[in-house]
Amino acid sequence: QIAPYHNLYGFGTVDFEKDDIHDQVSRIHDLGFKGIKLHPAYQQFNILSPKAHEVYEQAQELGLFLTFHTGIHWHRIKDYDVSLFDEICWHYPELKFSMEHVGGYHYFPEALAVIVNNMNFEDTIPKGNVYGGLTSVFTLHQNRFWYLNEERLHELIAQAGVGQVFFGLDFPYNLEKETKMALETIRNLDISEADKALILG
Predict the structure, then answer these.
(1) What pLDDT is stored for residue 1 in this prediction?
(2) Contact 11/33 with Cβ under 8 angstroms?
C-alpha cells in the first residue's frame, strides 16, 4: 500500500529471462505488492511455458493476483492466444487473474468465454476467479485494436455480471482526455448506479 494513497496498490513484474522465477514471485509478495503484471507479447513468453507455470503455482500459493495484457500486441499470437487462458484456470483453480482489454477488439468472444467458463453458476450470485479489465477499451482514435463498443460492454456485464468486471487496474498511460472518456462511458451504461460504482471500485 502506498501511503497516503490508501486506494492505490502496487504490483510487481517478473523477468522471464532469468531462472529464479520462484524467488522473484516470493520477493514480490514479501515486498507487500498485491499482484503481478504480466505482458506475454511484450515480454515474449508463452503463457503455458514452464516458467509461466512457476509463476502461476507460486502466485496461487501466496494469494497474489495476476493481471495479463490480452489482445493483439505485435508478437506471435500462439504465445498468448486468449483461449489458452482457460488452461491456466484448469491447472490453477484458486488463482485469480484479470484479462485486461478483455481480449481487445479481435478476441473479445474468446476472453468472455474464458471468464464465463470459469464461473460458478450454482452460487446465488455467480462468481469466478477470472476478471475482465476495462482499460484502454473506450477510444476509437487510440488503441482501436482494443476497442469495445457499448454493446460488447453490456454483453460482458450481462453474461459475467458486474462482479467480474472492473476499471483502473492496468497501465496508467492514458491521458486525462481518454480517462475522462472512459469514466463517462461507464457512467452512461444502462446499469444501476450501484453496479457502476462496483465497476469503478
Answers:
(1) 52
(2) yes
